[in-house]
């Protein structure tokens, strides 16, 4: 019984170690196979790729560079200032986009008897408002992460 199981395992593993060859038949068709092809000429064979070596472990020869706490605080303050400026600009852009959307909602054109046409016309303005709202939310979250 052990012999049968061993032979079965070996038979299953054989294709894994077989080399792949390039064959060209009389009509010029190219075939890649790990078994010989009748009426075809073997052109070349390819070795199985070698196992990839794992990357070398990081050597703890040099400790990572530490930033002076004063320098880090200055960097954090500068980042906070930049984010607050961006937030202010984005909020003013959001207010302007909301104002433009409100103006467009008040306009009714004669060709828009179907309400779907009104919605299609307003959609780009709504998308701009939504984008500014997402940006404001993201900036507020970024500022909250700094504090």
Task: Summarize the structure in short.
With 147 residues, the protein is mainly alpha-helical.
3D architecture notes:
The structure is a single chain. The model has no long low-confidence stretch (mean pLDDT 82). This protein is mostly helical and 147 residues long. The longest helix is centred in the middle third of the chain and has 38 residues, at 69-106. The chain contains 3 helices and 3 strands. Helix 2 (69-106) packs antiparallel against helix 3 (115-146). The protein has a 3-stranded antiparallel beta sheet, with no helix packed on it. Strand 1 and strand 2 (30-33) form a beta hairpin. The protein has 2 domains: 2-46, no CATH class; 69-146. It is 59% helix and 12% strand.
Summarize the helices and strands and which ones pair or pack.
Blueprint: H1 2-17, E1 20-25, E2 30-33, E3 40-46, H2 69-106, H3 115-146
Antiparallel strand pairs: 1-2, 1-3
Which features would summarize this protein structure in a list?
single chain, 147 residues, mainly alpha, 2 domains, 3-stranded antiparallel β-sheet, 3 strands, flat
